UniProtKB/TrEMBL annotation:
NAD-dependent lysine deacetylase and desuccinylase that specifically removes acetyl and succinyl groups on target proteins. Modulates the activities of several proteins which are inactive in their acylated form. The gene is cobB. The lineage of its organism: Bacteria, Pseudomonadati, Pseudomonadota, Gammaproteobacteria, Lysobacterales. Belongs to the sirtuin family. Class III subfamily. This is NAD-dependent protein deacylase. It comes from Tahibacter aquaticus. Residues 1-249 form the Deacetylase sirtuin-type domain.
Amino acid sequence: MEPVRQLAATLSQARRLLVLTGAGVSAESGIATFRDAQTGLWARFRPEDLATPEAFARDPALVWRWYAWRRDQIARAQPNAAHYALVEIARRLPTTLVTQNVDDLHQRAGFHDAICLHGSIARTLCSITGQAIDADWLAAHPQEPPPSPHHPRGLARPGVVWFGENLPAAALEQAYAAAADCDVVLAIGTSALVHPAAGLPAEAQRHGAWFAEINPQRTPLSGQADLCLPLAAGVALPAVLAAWNGVHA
Ligand code: APR
């Protein structure tokens, strides 16, 4: 059976699904993935050199401007067919969505309880206390970055998890609990290079789950997948839904 129909048939029999998404699921919305070459102004920087506490300490204005550019790119983007297909799959099958993405496209497509392992670019925190900083304060303080209202030496920083920082404990716990309780796990649009997120499919397999990967490229997880769909997410997921309809017919 060809891979799309095989995945559809498996999902139609599944009890509980875990989905792990990465930047690839937002690629067809026009948002550059983490490891694609950065475009334009930011082409000369590597994300790994910007998304770190050290980079922010060294040049807070540069890091703040990079996130402002990404936030603007996201605000102008729309969810794509992959985001909407995942909402439809979750209507048919109890689904836990764990995302590494910091954009809000899953939520804007209607997946409101996505577990955000790496935080959210839409949130702004105090660089010292970690407390949230609201939009009114940011609008009233146009400095780059704005000062924090929570600490005299604090600065506003994006509410994302930087390299070397801890992931939100509750989100991680929920994600691993879902891995222990699913019978199918899907990894979509992730290079599977960053742990602990990349460890979720193997954790699900340790609990007996069947694992499929949707990614045009092979990844370190491809060799252990029960099924690989070398397709773009925005093509694969609508095709799986269409085949799923056929499964019942
Ligand atoms: N559909 C599916 N997959 C795609 C598509 C697409 N249309 N386009 C690209 N991809 C795949 C690429 O082949 C790649 O494997 O998406 C993956 C994107 O990988 P990365 O850019 O590494 O993004 P991601 O896996 O989310 O990175 C994980 O690393 O840098 C940290 O915190 C950051 O959350 C990020 C984490």
